[in-house]
């Protein structure tokens, strides 16, 4: 057994099993930070021992046993009344584990995710916390994904873990009456991680590309543990539809290609088929929510593969329902664009005008980009030009900026 | 784990309507006692009866009024002993005052 080989196996086990082991180690004490410390010490031991002793038959169980011993040592060192109680419980746990060593390690990751996305945890830290505790991202990786300095992110994560422990946030899946609302927070955190990864279309920044894939991994995990929740199926479906079009967003020269101009042959058929199947499953279940509806929009876009055009009437209808549910200006903008495609640009502009007095629109790029496009379609050249200027000024992605500049240049050629 | 439920609501309104609201409040406390989770609790007199004390540089200053001047004031508290935060939050939501003001839930820090 080479050291390189042992390192590889340990890294694989850590990657696949990290969240499972942390969830189990923290389940009784709710001390996530201590669980993570114990697990990282166990991984260090594995790297030291496996090259000579060989890789154990059940590497995860080996890591769990060693990490439990580390937890017991740590609580012995603390010597407080509370710690002594934890200590006894842990001893009991360990004996239990030793007795039934061949049984599979129970999967408590969903319980840990519900603790991380608990309403008592600040919304902005829920997704980072899930990435760290379930997937083992370090604070620097999470911080760079969410554009927060590593030190600040580390501080937020430490504070959140302290709150789980000190406030007694349970590591458990909520019961039925509370499940839907609480699941929403878990899904929102996963979608936030996906959105962060999605904003780097070329996958140049490796950590961002990883983030979209990791979010899909988490989405699959939730679906496998809660197979009959329409919204978890809807979210996974939505993410897979988006992922299927990931590469098509850029041409060979790295330039931005808007959805309507993408060649459907550049979309990933396999991912689309999986997304469609998930959406069908979600539609068979009672109730419908935001993610399921957004996945349905995606489905109406990809029919272009077969019919040559997106089903704009369906897209308009679905965004209409979403507008009623969310009242979100983002959804209203999408609805206006769909209205423009199915009933003409002027009707779309009329709907966008309902947002004109909303102060949030002043620096919201998609509003100005949609306005510029629709105004140029009705020949309102001067107004369109001003809207393009605004949209270009607000865009952060250089490729999208170049795309908008090209559109604006075409517009001014029309004028001459 | 022990939690303190701290009840904040419009102080003048609370004091003025105390008689009318007491039956609901007593029923709430009774249900916590029956559930075997109740540790302690009291209602407080109005914030206009409050006095704040500070010692600075060995000198004691006594000032009329509560710590923070605000319309919403601490009006009472309950201490309960339950397995986790979710159970405590569930009891806080049942508190009649939660629909008028705010119930802050904080874990007790054992000595």
Describe this protein's structure.
- The complex is a heterodimer of chains A (416) and B (111).
- With 416 residues, chain A is mainly alpha-helical.
- Chain A contains 20 helices and no strands.
- Chain A has three domains: 3-107; 109-221, no CATH class; 311-416, Serine Threonine Protein Phosphatase 5, Tetratricopeptide repeat.
- Chain A is 73% helix and 0% strand.
- Chain B has a single domain, classed as 2-Layer Sandwich (Alpha-Beta Plaits), CATH 3.30.70.1060.
- In chain B, the strands form two sheets. A four-stranded antiparallel sheet of chain B has the order 2-5-1-6. In chain B, strands 3-4 form a two-stranded antiparallel ribbon.
- The longest helix of chain B is centred in the N-terminal third of the chain and has 17 residues, at 18-34.
- Chain B is globular.
- At the A-B interface, loops of A face helix 3 of B.
């Amino acid at each position: 057994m080479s050291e390189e080989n042992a390192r590889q196996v340990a890294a694989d086990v850590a990657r696949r099993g990290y969240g499972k082991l942390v969830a189990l180690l923290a389940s009784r004490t709710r001390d996530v930070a201590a669980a993570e410390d114990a697990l990282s010490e166990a991984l260090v031991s594995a790297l030291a021992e496996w090259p000579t002793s060989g890789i154990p038959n059940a590497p995860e169980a080996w890591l769990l046993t060693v990490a439990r011993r580390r937890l017991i040592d740590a609580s012995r060192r603390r010597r407080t009344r509370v710690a002594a109680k934890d200590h006894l419980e842990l001893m009991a746990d360990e004996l239990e584990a030793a007795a039934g060593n061949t049984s599979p390690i129970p999967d408590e990751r969903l319980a840990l995710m519900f603790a991380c996305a608990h309403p008592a945890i600040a919304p902005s830290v829920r997704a980072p916390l899930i990435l760290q505790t379930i997937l083992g991202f370090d604070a620097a990786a999470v911080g760079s994904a969410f554009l927060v300095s590593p030190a600040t992110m580390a501080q937020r994560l430490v504070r959140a873990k302290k709150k789980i422990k000190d406030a007694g946030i349970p590591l458990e899946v909520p019961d039925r009456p509370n499940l839907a609302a609480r699941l929403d927070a878990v899904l929102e955190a996963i979608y936030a991680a996906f959105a962060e990864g999605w904003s780097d279309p070329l996958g140049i920044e490796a950590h961002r590309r990883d983030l979209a894939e990791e979010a899909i991994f988490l989405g699959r995990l939730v679906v496998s543990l809660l197979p009959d929740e329409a919204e978890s199926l809807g979210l996974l479906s939505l993410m897979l539809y988006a992922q299927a079009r990931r590469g098509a967003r850029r041409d060979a020269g790295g330039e931005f290609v808007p959805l309507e101009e993408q060649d459907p042959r550049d979309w990933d058929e396999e991912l689309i088929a999986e997304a469609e199947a998930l959406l069908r499953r979600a539609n068979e279940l009672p109730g419908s929510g935001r993610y399921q509806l957004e996945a349905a929009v995606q489905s109406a876009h990809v029919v272009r593969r077969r019919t040559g055009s997106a089903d704009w009437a369906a897209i308009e209808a679905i965004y209409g329902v979403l507008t009623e549910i969310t009242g979100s200006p983002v959804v209203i903008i999408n609805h206006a664009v769909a209205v423009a495609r199915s009933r003409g640009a002027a009707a779309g502009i009329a709907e966008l005008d309902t947002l004109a007095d909303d102060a949030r629109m002043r620096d919201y790029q998609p509003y100005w980009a949609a306005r510029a496009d629709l105004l140029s379609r009705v020949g309102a050249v001067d107004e369109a030009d001003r809207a393009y200027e605004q949209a270009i000024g607000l865009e952060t992605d250089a490729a999208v900026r170049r795309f908008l500049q090209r559109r604006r240049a075409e517009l001014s050629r029309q004028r001459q | 784990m022990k939690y303190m439920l701290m009840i904040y609501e419009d102080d003048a309104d609370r004091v003025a309507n105390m008689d009318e609201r007491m039956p609901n409040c007593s029923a709430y406390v009774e249900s916590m006692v029956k559930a075997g989770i109740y540790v302690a609790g009291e209602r407080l007199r109005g914030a206009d009866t409050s006095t704040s004390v500070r010692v600075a540089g060995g000198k004691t200053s006594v000032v009329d009024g509560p710590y923070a001047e605000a319309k919403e004031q601490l009006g009472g508290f309950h201490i309960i002993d339950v397995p986790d935060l979710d159970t405590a939050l569930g009891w806080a939501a049942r508190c009649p005052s939660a629909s008028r003001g705010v119930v802050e839930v904080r874990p007790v820090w054992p000595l």
